[in-house]
Amino acid sequence: MGIICPNETIAEIANNILASSNEKAVVVVSTGPIEEAVSIAYVMIDKGVEVIITRSATAVKLKESFNIPVLDMGIKTIDILKAVKKASSYGKRVGIIVYDDIIFSVNTIKYMLEVDAIPIFFNVNDTIEEKEDKIHEKLADIDVGVGGSIAIAILAKYGIKGILIESEIESIRQIINEAKTIVEFTQLEKQRVQELSTIFNYTHEGVVTVDKNGMIKFFNGLAEKVFKKQSSLVIGKRAGELLPQLCFSEVMAAKEPSIDEIITVGDNTIVSTIIPLKTGDEFAGAICLFQESSKIQGMEGKIRLKLNEKGYLAKYTISDIITGCEQMENVVNFLSIYSKVNSTILIMGETGTGKEIVAQSIHNASLRATMPFVAINCGALPDNLLESELFGYEDGAFTGAKKGGKPGLFEIAHGGTIFLDEIGEISEKVQLNLLRVLEEKQVMRIGGNKLTHVDVRVICATNKNLKEEVKKKAFREDLFYRLNVLAIKIPPLRQRKESIRLFIDYFVTKLCAENNIRIKSISNRAAEYLVNYDWPGNVRELQNFIERLIVSVHRHTIDIDDVRSLMDIENETPGAPHSVININIAREYKEIEKEILNSAFNFADKNHTRTSKMLNISRATLWRKLDKKQ
To answer: Both 229 and 328 in a single domain?
Structure first.
């Protein structure tokens, strides 16, 4: 702290108080004009003074000139009374010379001390000459005067006795204690600011803060790099002028944050979030946190690479799901809803319908997207191995156990999602253990005695009818209801033929690129043939067949003959019995015969030779039986 005293007496009192309390302060006496005290304050602040104590008009002037706390030790009524009492021995007409911000009662002084009290007021901005003029005007009315050092000096110039108004010792002690508290608080605040400054300067984010007037208060190292400006040159300047890309004024006006805005700054693209700051109910400014998009992509790449190395990464999103029909549009709508909650999901569908793609899409649309996605095919492992994979094991739990033990997939998936495919294949023992994990949210490793809490979203899939399995006592009823909280049923490909052409085009493009083959096209006739097939293996079978086509057919355009030649014909022409010839046996024989002939003719692309071979009749018979227009 710094103390600027108006006289030696107060300076001595202050030094005694400081010595008795073992406090440190810079104490200076200033008996000259207020400007002298301002100069002294500048020197004090340069030396690290954090709060200044002074008196009356000097305190007012320093508060106007500096941003640090300035405490006024003040002139109290009791101080004036003591000085007037002392002055009354030199005459009954006492001039009370003080600054106009000091409040006292002239009538009280007259009544208590039986003197003629004559107030003479200085203004904080008065020059020495103006102060002298004010005293000179009252010289004829006073015998003696009381006041500060400047007033006493002016009175002495005219041969009039002057008595110094002195502050009470307890008043000075009290103001020093207040200053001590402010210094301690200021140092704590500086420490806090330094800690925040260190954090902000070493964080991976750029940080810019402004006060309520939009003036820049903090500008960290990354902000200097991105905006190519030195913090020393921007602190205290208006952000709207120096950083027009950052919408501080809009955020503070709206009093709402601006989240993840993409902004171009020179050659850089940054993703910024600006949040208004409040102190109590008042808005005190705003803070901007931003990252360079290149760094975000780099970090995301590293994270995904780490997860990918372990196989705990979901790569598909909802946008990757091919719909093309109302049924799948409904499925996608449910995925968007279900992804926002943590409830267990049961995905039902035939083999090859894309159940894992749906599971990955849910994970990537959820709040767990940055956490692991762990998938396991429960039908591919024997019981003992499946248990050890799901729940982990301790060191020495069984012969061949890994030294040190191994965490199970539930532990690995903590915070993320575990996908249990072919859940209908697990044994009753595994069902019971799985039920315990789902109910208690805890897992115990094989051979262990310690429970570990796991926060995992469970998604299961099956190609079985689990309700029927429950009726047959092949699947636990309590586990079924635990798993069947939210259900998604994926229709087989034969029930959504509108989607097949979309899948064909998608797989042709994708597989050509993966096999480094020039993009091929599928003729309409070939596509129609593929659409009319039932695809018992669903999307997986279709994908495999398209890959076979693009690798085997060397022409640019794949035609229906290419499809037929590669299609498995062991069980006759694929698709024909189910989807090409639809016979209504309630019709008359001739109508049935005609429908068979027409359907076969259309199926053979209206090729008479091929149709006659298919039906094992002569071309002439075919011509006769067919409508002659054909």
So the answer is: no
Residue 630 lies in a domain: no
Confidence band (pLDDT; 50, 70, 90) for 299? low
Per cent of the chain over pLDDT 90 is 42
- pLDDT, position 594: 74
Lookup result for tokens 């899409």: 361
Whether 145 and 163 have beta carbons less than 8 Å apart is answered as yes
C-alpha–C-alpha distance, residues 289 and 88, integer Å? 68
Q: State pLDDT tens for residues 105-143.
A: 888 888 889 899 999 999 878 888 999 999 999 999 999
- What CA–CA distance (Å, rounded) separates 570 from 329? 36
Q: Can you tell me which residue has the tokens 């994990």?
A: 437
This prediction's pTM? 0.46
Residue 391, number of CB atoms within 10 A of its CB? 23
**Cα 261 to Cα 267: distance, rounded to the nearest angstrom:** 16
Quote the CA–CA distance of 616 and 364 in Å, as a whole number: 55
pLDDT tens sequence across 247-297: 999 998 888 898 888 888 888 888 899 999 887 778 889 999 998 877 766
- Amino acid letter, residue 102: I
Nearest-angstrom CA–CA distance, 362 and 338 = 7
| Whether residue 245 sits in one domain with residue 282 | yes
Q: Give the other-Cβ count within 10 Å of 319's Cβ.
A: 9
d(CA 494, CA 325): 12
Average pLDDT over residues 83-110: 89
- Residue 286 and residue 268 share a domain: yes
The span from the CA of 39 to the CA of 37, in Å, is: 5
Q: What is the 3-state secondary structure (H, E, C) of 553-591?
A: CCCCEECHHHHHHHCCCCCCCCCHHHHHCCCCCCCCHHH
Pairing verdict, β 417-421 and 406-407: unpaired
Angle, alpha carbons 377-311-490 (nearest 5°): 45
The angle subtended at Cα 18 by Cα 13 and Cα 23, nearest 5°, is 165
Beta-bridge partners for 273: 289
At 249, the amino acid letter reads: S
**CATH number of the domain bearing residue 132:** 3.40.50.10660
C-beta separation of 40 from 195 below 8 A: no
pLDDT of residue 569: 40
Dihedral sign, CA of 312, 317, 318, 320? negative
* Mean of pLDDT over the chain: 85
Answer whether 234's CB lies under 8 Å from 221's CB. Answer: no
Q: What is the DSSP string of 61-92?
A: HHHHH-SS-EEE----HHHHHHHHHHHTTS-S
Q: Which domain holds residue 284?
A: 203-295
| 229 and 374 both lie in a single domain | no
Torsion of CA 327, 329, 335, 336, to 10 degrees: -150
What is the token pair recorded at 480?
A: 């079924």
Residues 283 and 333 placed together within one structural domain of the fold: no
Residues 164/29, Cβ–Cβ less than 8 Å:
no
